[in-house]
Every structure is written in structure tokens, then in C-alpha cells.
Amino acid sequence: MDEMVNKTQNWLNHTYVGIYPYTHIPEDGITGWTTIKALITALQIEIGIPEPNGNFGPATMEKCPTLSINSDATDPKIQHEIYILQGALFCKGYNPTGLTGTFGENTKAAVMKFQADAGLSNPDGIVTPMIFKALLNMVAFVLINNDNLKGDPNIRIIQQSLNRDYNRVIGLIPCDGLYSRSTNKALIYGLQIEEGQTSPDGIWGSNTASKCPVLSVGSTQKKFILLLQYALYCNGFNPNGFDGYYGNGAKSAVTNFQSFCGLKADGIAGSQTFASLLVSTGDNTRKGTACDCSTTVTPSIAATIKSNGYKIVGRYLTGKFRMTSDELKVIFDNGLNVIPIFEVGGYKLEYFSYDQGLLDANSAMLAATQFGFPENTIIYFAVDFDALDYDVTSSILPYFSAINELFANLGSKFKVGIYAPRNVCIRTRNAGYSCSSFVCDMSTGFSGNLGYPLPKDWAFDQISTVTLHGAADIEIDNNIASGRDNGISSISPINILDILNNNSFAKRFGVEFSSPEAEIELLNNALVKISISAAIKAASDGDSSVIKFKGGEFEGTDIQTPLDNLKASLNKDNIELSSILAKANDMELSIKVSTNGASLKIELENSFKVPEYDIFSLSETLSIEFRIDKDKLLEEFELAVNGIIDFVKETHAIGVLIFIALAAAIIIVGAETALGAALIKGIASIAAFA
């Protein structure tokens, strides 16, 4: 706890509680937005803002006072303004030595220290509205250096220099050593100001591009060269100093940056180079050699793509816009390569989690294997929204961690790529979860693009949407290709459908899979759902109870007692458990049982190798889910079982599988429980059909 922050909070509560719309804040001595907003609200009350809201906007800026050592602290209003200033200084980490309401030499010294940290020339200790606004926020003006973030001293120099030269337009940006959107926009503002624009806005546009200088060795436009040097360093290319001279260091950095971005590497910095430094698309009129689309590629569309100079086509592995084997043949026959993209629900934050990553990894591997994509094919998993940095931490990284985990556990021959904004790509790669980035740079306003460099492992840079004309017109996303991933030029399809339909539960139940990732619903009503699904074989996640069934018997020493109890219960109804189970002596199953009070789910998993393809095995699951009111167990289980019996009669399905499932559930939940008793009554009814 900071004692002076605590005193600031106490003063605010004592002075403003009861004055609309101020509300009491915690007196915890911790600087945070709650305290900062309280200080802003107090200032707005003092200067007469009609509806104080704790946000330092244009109206507050217009009415904000200028304070100095000459301010008259005998005026109660000015005295309160000085208190607010001193509280803001304490919250920002500067020490005016007291919360006094008097602007003395110590307060002046604290203000001068802040002005120096912000990069201002000739600090004078005068608190202008610009200084007040910079104090009343949560950004840092000292180098960040902690376990999570470490600022770069050279970027701090850049930030201070931008504040020094352009504060009349940009205000004061953070000087924390972290390249961010505020630094990025300040660089654009600086460029626009040097271009002579009358209304600079910090947004890259055609006017800014058209007025860009052309800089090369010997150029004398010092201010432009400084901005170029700043931008190069922020993008990871060190010009070896910020001196405003275009020497060999600047030329080398420009050349290397141009080569990295796929520009003509001539060491001459013009509009196109500035664009690539300052906006995520770079020059979005550039024509790429890769594209992606949601449209099925027909022969005429393939001809159009090829005639327009494209060599690589991105298509979806699964979902509504999924590629087909026939389409892939068309693409390859036209001399084009393919990059596989996986996206189902990747356009919203709620979609991403560790568990979803496991599901998507399985689905992607299954689809890619069926199509016959070769070893080392990179699959690009999509994060198609503006994920904030904390979203990456909480949701995106766990999602990709799960994908990597499953790929590793299954010995996947495929590699994990990512389609996402820059920051998401960078953080996922830094965590070791992806090997190649497909950057959605078209969204220039994304918080994950603005203020972040192009990822070092970028393979494709999506910069514009265009319509191609030719044998058949098609709208595509235009992508610059780095050459790090040239896509796939041929496949060796595996007919997983035939394998599934001829070796699985589906055949026993007289149904067929329409696609490997499809779920077949066998029965679905208010009380019970029975379905079959397929997957690449994965290890158990350990979250559910699991028992094994092999050679007509349940296996495991820890199940012996509940198994004996089940046998005894069934014997009372003259049902011989062993004789029924023996009918399935050719099956080897892994059985999971889970219950949450409102439902009981039983999953019978069967796995088998794919002939001639021993790099993976397939897993199929028969799932039986009871939706049972715990207060009506016997009644509703009886109705559910009657529905299952009708289903078995109508479809001639193998009743022994249902019997095995119910028996396993009883072993797990216990024959002596209410749920176990209801299940025993149900299994007795099923026995005649097993």
C-alpha cells in the first residue's frame, strides 16, 4: 500500500462524497483506474463540467486550468485543483512531498521531473492542460521493467523525441519503452506534420502516401530521416542511431526491412516503404502471389486465378466452405498450390478454450489425413477477430497449447500455423505453439495490428480484398507471400469414409458416415440421445471414469466389488451377466461414464488401425446420453429405456452394445445408489434384446 495514494483517496472521499456524481472509492493505497477516474471526476466538478464522468475528454481539456508556482492557493477552487494535481503526481510515482493544496517548490520539482521523463525540452514546472491530462491516466512515462514486460530504452528515446517535437498535436504519449498503437500513431502524425498537412489525424491514407518523401543516401531532409529511423527501429530493424542522416546504417536497415517485407530491396525509402513501416497492410495496392477464398474453385475460377498471377490458394479444411477432393484436383491440374485453413468459430472470443483446441486439432487432423495432405503440411488455425492482449493470455494461448499437445501426443505429421492479427501471431509463436503466421493485416484498426511489427515467421500477409476478372470472376483476399510456405502441390487421398463405414459401429447399426467429422444421431428425444462420432485416436483426458471391456469381460481390479454387486442384482431377475457380455467377445472398448446431476452420459470408444496407414488410428464413439430429472429417476429411466427398446426393434441394432453401456454405468455409479437402481431396472429390460 502506498501511504500517499491512500491519503489521496481519503481526501477525495472526505471532500466530494455527497457531491453529484462522485461515489466513494476504496481507500486501499493502490493506484488504479478507480482512483484516477475519481481524480478526474473531482477536477470536472471543480471546473464546472455539467455531467462529470471521470473521462478526460475534449470538454475537460478545454476548461482544464493551468497551474504553477504562482497559482493562488487562497482561492478554495484553485486549492482543490492543486490537491488533485498533487494526488495525480503521487499516483503517477512523482513526489511533491505532501498533499497540501499549495503549489510550492517541491510540487514544481515533481512536475519538472515528469516533464523531463516525458521528453519535453526545458521543463518549467508549469502544469498545462496537456500535462494535467497526461498525469490523469494509467500510462507510464518511465521505462517498464518487470517480469512480464521489459521496455526498450531506445524506443523510450523515440517516444520522448516524438513528445518533444510534436506534442502540440499528439499531446504526450507513454514513454515506457514499449512499441504500441500510441507510438505508431504518433509516428504517422509526425510524418503528416512534416508533410505540411493542415489537419493531421494519425491515420495512414492516400494523402499521406502521396506526400511521402523519397529518401536515400545523401538525403538532407533530417526530420523525415529521423522518423524513418524511428519507424525502422520500432519494426525491429536497427539503423544504428537516430541522427537524422541517411548513411550506410539507415540504408542497410531499409534494405533488410524491404527484403523482409517482400518489397524491392534497393535501400531507397519511398511511400511503399513508409507504408510497410507504419500501417499493417503496407501499400494495399500491391499485388500478391497468394490468395484465399470461400468460393469453391472450379476449372474456370482456377484459370482466372492463374491468369492473374497467383500461385497459391488458401481453402478451408472443414465447415460450410470446405474444400473437396475434386476441387483440389482442379487446383493442382491448373498448376496452383494449396494452403489448408481451419476455421469453424474462430471469429469470436467465446469460441476459444483449451477443450476447443483439442476438438479442433482432432477435426483438422482427421480432415487433412482424409484429403491426403503430405507430411509437414502447415495447417493455419484461425483467430479471426480483434483479440486483445489479455484475451490472448486467457483464451488463445490455451487453445493453441491444446492443439500442440494433441498433435504431439498423436505423432501428427502436420504442423501448426496461425491465421491472426500480428500480436496474436507473435505471442503464439513466442510460446512455441506455431511455426508459421498467416497475418490478417487488412484489419488495420485491430488493436493486435496497430503498433506491432510484422511477425518474423510470416508466410502470408493478407492486405486487401479484390475481384479477379477472367474466365469466371471471383472475389479473393489478396496475400503477399514471403516464400516461407509455398503450399502443397499434390495429395494422396485416404478414403477414411469407407474405412469408417466398413469397420465401425455404423455398420453394426446399418448407417453410414457422410463425412469423417460428422455425428450420426441414431435416437434423439426428450429423455435420451444416442449418437456415433469418429475421431483420430487420442489418450483419455482423465476427466471421466473409464473402464475397459475386452474379450467379453470388464477389466480392472478396482471394479471387482461393484461388478459383483451388479451380477448379484441381475441374478435376482435370472439374468446371467457373463453370458450376455460373451456375445461381444470380439470387441475391445474403452468406456467413459460422466454425470452432472441432470444427465448421465456413457461413451463406448472403439479404436482400430487404418490398413496400410499405421501413422494413426481411428477412434469411434457410441454415446448414450440420458437427460433425467433426479427426482423422477425410476419413472423417466423406464420411459427412456422403452424408447431405446423400440429403437433396437425397429433398426435391428445390436442390443448388446446398449447392455454393455448400461452395465458400465452401474459399475461406475454403484448398484446401491438411486441412480444405480434405476439403471439396473433399465438393463433388465434391455437384457432380452441383447
Automatic annotation (TrEMBL):
Query: One Pfam family this chain carries?
Result: Rv2525c_GlyHyd-like
Question: Where would you find the membrane-spanning parts of this chain?
Answer: 654-680
Q: Ranges for the Peptidoglycan binding-like domain?
A: 81-135, 225-277
* Keywords, in A-Z order: Membrane, Plasmid, Transmembrane, Transmembrane helix
Identify the residues that the record assigns to the Rv2525c-like glycoside hydrolase-like domain, covering every copy.
Answer: 304-480
Membrane is among the record's keywords:
yes
Put simply, this protein is called DUF1906 domain-containing protein
Q: What is the lineage of its organism?
A: Bacteria, Bacillati, Bacillota, Clostridia, Eubacteriales
